[in-house]
Amino acid sequence: MHQDVEKILVSEREISKLIKRIAGQINKDLKSEPLLVIIILKGSTPFAMDLIKNLDMPVEIDFMQVSSYGKSTASNGFINLKKDIEQDITGKNVLIVEDIIDSGHTLFKIKTLFESRNAKSVRICTLLDKPSRRVVDVKVDYVGKEIPDEFVVGYGLDYDEKYRNLSYVGVLKKEIYT
Ligand code: IMP
Ligand code: MG
Questions:
Q1: What sign does the CA torsion over 141, 27, 43, 17 have?
Q2: pLDDT tens across 144-170, in order?
Q3: 22 alpha carbon to ligand 2 midpoint, in Å?
Q4: Ligand 2 is a single-atom ion; what residues have CB below 5 A from it?
């Protein structure tokens, strides 16, 4: 375990089980309809890459990036679109893939953006959910695991751009960010 991590919250093995379960639900819901998977940079990349390997329908991917909160550990509600996807989503089934939903500001902003474009369907998937921190209500279709109100890193999740390469999700020691 990394020295800055207090405890492992979701092991590598559990992550792979969660992904298989979510992919199974998506395969069932979409049947064999093609799917455009939108990966929210940067934190969702390991999750999205493992998820798509378990999807059975024809899959396309694209990337979107919104402003993150850098050295802070909470969202301020001001979300900026830093990078948009590169295609017209008219008539497509879209799956937005996020690493974690906390206040809900980020996914609310992204969902609102997509609602104004004429997709056939828009679904949201997140590996982790901290429901106790929700400020804005957003409907999430697929959730890997609900976690308590603790700041976590690893498997894509960062603190100040670090720890994304850990193979598990762990609670960051408080002394690192306080
Ligand atoms: P929200 O807008 O408050 O829902 O926050 C969502 C974004 O904040 C996620 O995409 C993550 O990038 C980041 N975030 C929220 N909680 C954590 C955490 O515990 N560790 C690392 N990043 C987090
Ligand atoms: Mg993020």
A1: positive
A2: 999 999 999 999 999 999 999 999 999
A3: 19
A4: 43
Query: How far apart are the C-alpha atoms of 76 and 121, rounded to whole Å?
Result: 29
Taking alpha carbons only, the member of 115, 116, 91, 118 closest to residue 34 is 91
Task: List the structure tokens of 56.
Answer: 């059975």
| Sheet architecture: strand order including 59-66 | 81-83, 59-66, 35-41, 93-101, 121-129, 142-146
* Amino acid (one-letter) located at 14: E
Q: What residues contact 86, with CB distance under 8 A and at least 6 apart?
A: 62
The answer to whether 89 and 163 have CB atoms below 8 angstroms apart is no
Q: Kind and range of the H or E element at 101?
A: strand 93-101
Q: What pLDDT digit, counting tens, does each position of 32-79 carry? A: 999 999 999 999 999 999 999 999 999 999 999 998 665 567 776 778
Active site residue ranges: 102
What is the residue whose two structure tokens read 């979300």? 79
The strand pair at 59-66 and 81-83 is best described as antiparallel
What's the gap in Å between 61 CA and the centre of ligand 1? 22
